[in-house]
Amino acid sequence: MANRSFCSPNHSFKFGEVSFDLLTDFLVNLNKRNKDNLNHLSKCSGTFKDKRLVEYVFLIAKELRLDPLVGYHAIELLQRFMVKHLTDLLTTPTPQGAAADQPGSYEDVIFDKIEGKFPLIVFSCVQLASKLSLHSHIIDNNTAVQFLHSVGHSVSKQTLMKSELMVLKGLEFRLNAPNPLTYVEILLEVLGHNEPSSPVDRLYDLCHHVLQFVSLQRTAIYDTLLRSTVRSVSPSREQRETFVTVTEDCMLLGVGVIAVAVFILRFKKWEQVVEELSHITAISRKSISDFALVTLTHIVRSNFPVTST
Q1: Whose CA, among 22, 33, 242, 281, lies 20 to 30 Å from 186?
Q2: What pLDDT, on a 0 to 100 scale, did the predictor assign at position 186?
């Protein structure tokens, strides 16, 4: 654990070796960016964080032996790019004659084109994320072409570079998007400074597993949390739209993941840690507890599924 690095948005450090002043700066910066993101959410936020898609990105990162941070970063890049790309395509005026020739099919044509390019777009996001990670090897074009060929996508280096450039332009070259793992790691480091008795070294690996679980079971977990919050088994459309600010709140996700890990690893310190996490982030203890308990319920169900008789 002593040699394990974590990434801030712009730096790479080892746990326990960062000054509290730097950690404070990191936390303030993350909090600001999280609030800015929540204040400018798209109606399509979270659309490209489907379980199958997230799993696909994680498997690519694992197969290429990339740091887990790359996978989480790639998912954020993909979400931002696809929302903007589709918005641009769908708001572009329909070519003259297209609507008359095939009424109502212009959107279908766009989605068909995207479908063909989508696997390469996903890979381009992973490749770009690997280039931004300070402690992960970069996927060069030779490796990329070989990997894509091995999974049934034969592309040239030129095609690969065009795809990467398309994603870069679509994101306006703004690639430094914080991801959930960054929040978890920095919050853990701050927790370790504030509560030295917290088993941060043991929590680190467990938090990785919990975060991966939440990422893969995102829809189910947040749906349960929504129904619990509004106290209805059938939340309205308006309630679901309002709840997007919860599903996209990386700070809440970060403290929730840590709270789950503490509950599993050292239950006796759970209330103390939740109190400290609330103090660090200004997120209420109830919000942290609700998120953690819903997640724990899904973890238990996944390990002990209920079968009908």
Answers
A1: 242
A2: 92
